[in-house]
Design goal:
Length: about 850
């Protein structure tokens, strides 16, 4: 139903089966049955589905299997502990996801206004939700447009469409124009759209689309699409599947050997339970969440509010920032940038008197003029007091000018302001005009919006605007200026391997000028228009984007498609936006970033909100995101190497035909209590080098690249060998209970030393003081872990099946920890 801009008024009325008197009340009831209410349906979300989704993870499946086997073997205590862990993690994830679901609520609020329509030939005020196609709506200054409307009559109508198109300047509307059917939204002068605002003038129009059929409704449908998973989530899922495969291979080998060697079935099942419990780094989801929470708190101090925790890490993985212009790169407020005065005094007069604005309300161009006058030291209020306004010719969208008749000190004048071409038609064609014409074209080529100002002396009020002869007294160029710090931020992002792509509804000249001024647009890079994109296939668009820095005259569909095309090439895309037009792209992006001063709809669907609308804040947040990603990488190394070390210990005991070196409940204790204290400290770690000097890494490589896997495997095998050595030695010199307790404690001690070596990639002794500064909390955690392990050995023997250890046993245990620490240190010296 988007073809009404190509129909005449009569054709529109006929097509919609209505008239200028409006609809009959009885007809409205029938149409409500057909079209429904003018509201956007809320997406229904079932909480039980969200809850069950928390357990759809391979690692959780492993733990569930361990819990079932443990219960089957009669170890109810161990089984309950495992079930508690599963439920605790699930409830935490459920709570986080519930907080993030609100994408449609803001869009519904657009339907809570009231509007004036003609019903049975009379003006009535009704809720916007009751507007139907065929309704005739009356619009005035300040009104929010209730539906998509084909204008029937318009007088000096200016509409702010920034919420829909991103255009920073109000656009002129004209009911008498008829467009071609393929005319893009931003050029449809005879149509106003739901959610946009009337800045000036008045109009009568007929509704042709309501609810989900409006342009905003179509955007709302896009918002229902699910957002892509974060890079961290994808990386963890990939790791889980690989880890599960490795575990099954180990279990398969164990079962084959057990069958061939006719091992006792009870021992084999207990071994499998121990393997399953060892395989799952239970603390991983919690520690990752904790690192993200601490990162979110830190970002909040930098005016970045995180709504969806994994978004904290996504920041650091971003390879593209698809940014709007207005309010992010620029101030979002027009400012006088350049002036040329033939008669400065007369220019001041026209700027002050041919102006309906006040300093804080009115047309943005006119407000900018008043602020410019103040900067020039001109008291525009005093000028208005001295002048007597005789009459006013309101802004004419056809002629693109406005005029006022004034009397100043007994002298009558007509003051005119408008498009240069319009004023030239009313002026004498002389050399001065030719020079002004060249200057006008030069200013326009810089992306400025240019207004001309003219004056005509008159003797009385008996004249027509058509036969008026004016003298042009000056030109003024306006710009939406770049924000402070944006240029530096763009260059920082470029150095970090992140491309900034500016997507805006503004015209190409303005967009290019702004982009060039902040170094987004470099020599040899392209500026594309939305219509150019419409003609390209996805493959052609992807190729074009490699050398494109600016997309001008972009539609919401263009921005959405750009995001999807970049994602198809495995790019991690962050999108900024503040209008309803940005909602589809914000939702589709890997990371949607809304501006705090933007629309409620944009803030609701975004995963992150910037309270200081500035690209520099986003780039600074990316730096923090990368530091957080490094902390997560360290935590993953620590937890996975510890889990694999536990598997090595248990598996080695089986193949060496030894009793079980570690019991399942002891492994759970280490994973959740001893090791679980230490792993939380990674949230507070600092980076020992500038993360913005590195290029973005693919999610799989950021957390699980070859180096990470090699380091993890080396630490795990070394850990396993040392713990088994302690177990075998003490098993040969005492009871199983003593050897088991020593192996259990030796594993805890080695994991403490592993945590110290995880603080940074450089060797510990390369700069000991730096190591303490990078993460002093790690050492505090070791003291806490030591106290907990003492409790496990001497106070909780009935729960953890331990026996008190002698001083000599502690000597063996400490020696294993120091040996582990030194061998990792030697490896670092040779590999760095």
């Amino acid at each position: 139903m988007s073809f009404f801009h190509s129909l005449s008024v009569d054709e529109t009325l006929k097509k919609l089966r209505t008239s200028l008197k409006g609809l009959a009340t009885s007809e409205v009831k029938e149409r409500l049955k057909v079209y429904g209410y003018n509201a956007l349906k809320k997406e229904e979300i079932k909480k039980w589905q969200i809850f069950l989704r928390q357990f759809n993870n391979p690692l959780v499946f492993i733990l569930i299997g361990a819990a079932v086997l443990t219960a089957f073997m009669g170890h109810a205590k161990d089984s309950l502990i495992i079930v508690f862990i599963i439920l605790f993690n699930g409830i935490l994830g459920f709570w986080q996801e519930l907080k993030a679901i609100s994408s449609m609520e803001a869009l519904q609020k657009l339907a809570e206004e009231r509007t004036v329509v003609l019903r049975d030939g009379k003006e009535v005020e009704i809720p916007v939700s009751e507007v139907v196609p065929g309704d005739v709506v009356i619009l005035g200054e300040g009104d929010v447009v209730p539906a998509d409307i084909r204008l029937v009559k318009s007088t000096g109508l200016l509409v702010d469409e920034a919420i829909l198109t991103g255009e920073s300047v109000p656009v002129e509307k004209n009911a008498d124009v008829i467009h071609k059917e393929d005319t893009p939204i931003y050029k449809r002068e005879n149509v106003v759209f739901k959610g946009t605002v009337v800045v000036r003038g008045k109009a009568l129009g007929v509704v042709f689309a309501t609810g989900k059929n409006t342009e905003i409704g179509k955007i709302a449908e896009r918002a229902k699409e699910s957002s892509p998973e974060s890079p961290l989530t994808r990386a963890l899922e990939s790791f889980s599947k690989r880890w599960m495969l490795v575990l099954f291979l180990i279990l398969a080998v164990i079962l084959v050997v057990a069958v061939l060697e006719k091992r006792d079935i009870y021992d084999v099942i207990m071994l499998i339970i121990a393997e399953l419990v060892s395989a799952v780094p239970e603390g991983l989801p919690l520690v990752v969440t904790f690192v993200l929470v601490i990162g979110a708190v830190y970002l909040s101090k930098k005016k970045v509010l995180v709504k969806y925790l994994p978004a904290v890490e996504t920041l650091g993985s971003s390879t593209y920032i698809v940014s709007d212009k207005t309010g992010t790169i620029t101030e979002g407020k027009l400012k006088v940038y350049s002036t040329f005065a033939i008669d400065k005094e007369e220019l001041y007069n026209v700027a002050a008197l041919c102006n309906d604005a006040d300093i804080d309300r009115g047309d943005p161009l006119e407000i900018a003029l008043l602020k410019w006058l103040e900067e020039e030291g001109i008291n525009w209020r005093l000028l208005r007091q001295k002048a007597v306004k005789l009459w006013e010719y309101p802004f004419d969208t056809k002629r693109r000018l406005m005029a006022v008749g004034v009397e100043i000190d007994g002298k009558k004048q007509v003051l005119v302001k408008g498009a240069f071409e319009s004023l030239v038609e009313l002026s004498l064609k002389d050399e001065a005009v030719e020079k002004l014409s060249k200057l006008h074209d030069e200013l326009a080529s810089q992306g400025l919006r240019v207004l001309a100002f003219g004056v005509a002396d008159v003797s009385d009020d008996k004249f027509s605007i058509d036969n008026l002869t004016i003298k042009i007294v000056g030109l003024v160029g306006f710009i939406d200026p770049p924000k402070e710090g944006v240029k530096e931020a763009v260059n920082t992002a470029r150095k970090a391997g992140i491309r900034v792509l500016m997507v805006t509804g503004d015209n190409p000249a303005t967009a290019a000028a702004i982009a060039r001024s902040v170094d987004i647009l470099k020599e040899g890079e392209r500026v594309l228009k939305g219509t150019d994109i419409d003609k390209m296939s996805d493959g052609e668009l992807l190729e074009a984007l490699k050398n494109t820095a600016v997309i001008a005259r972009a539609t919401p569909e263009n921005k959405y498609r750009i995001v999807r095309v970049l994602q198809s090439a495995k790019e991690i895309v962050a999108v900024t936006g503040d209008g309803v037009n940005d909602v589809p792209a914000l939702k589709a992006a890997d990371l949607g970033i809304a501006m705090g001063g933007g629309s409620q709809a944009a803030r609701e669907v975004a995963k992150m909100v910037i309270t200081d609308n500035n690209l520099s804040v986003i780039v600074e947040a990316i730096k923090t995101g990368r530091e957080i990603a490094k902390n997560i990488r360290k935590a993953i190394y620590y937890l996975v190497s510890c889990s694999f070390g536990e598997i090595f210990v248990v598996t080695s005991g089986f193949f060496l035909n030894l009793p079980l070196p570690l019991q399942p409940v002891q492994i759970l204790w280490i994973n959740l209590v001893t090791e679980g204290v230490q792993d939380k400290t990674f949230a507070f770690g600092k980076s020992d080098k500038d993360p913005m000097n590195e290029k973005p890494k693919k999610p799989e490589e950021a957390f699980f690249d070859k180096k990470q896997l090699k380091d993890t495997a080396f630490a795990a095998v070394l850990m396993g060998v040392l713990v088994v050595a302690v177990f075998v030695y003490l098993l040969g010199h005492g009871s199983y209970e003593r050897a088991n307790t020593a192996a259990f404690t030796s594993l805890a001690v080695i994991q403490w030393f592993n945590g110290i070596q995880s603080i940074k990639e450089k060797p510990f002794f390369a700069n000991v003081i730096e190591t303490f500064k990078v993460n002093p909390y790690m050492f505090l955690a070791i003291f806490a872990g030591f106290a907990l392990q003492l409790a496990a050995v001497y106070l909780l023997s009935g729960v953890l099946n331990t026996v008190p250890l002698a001083l000599t046993d502690w000597g063996y245990i400490l020696a294993s920890g120091i040996a582990f620490f030194l061998m990792i240190e030697v490896k670092k010296w040779f590999s760095t």
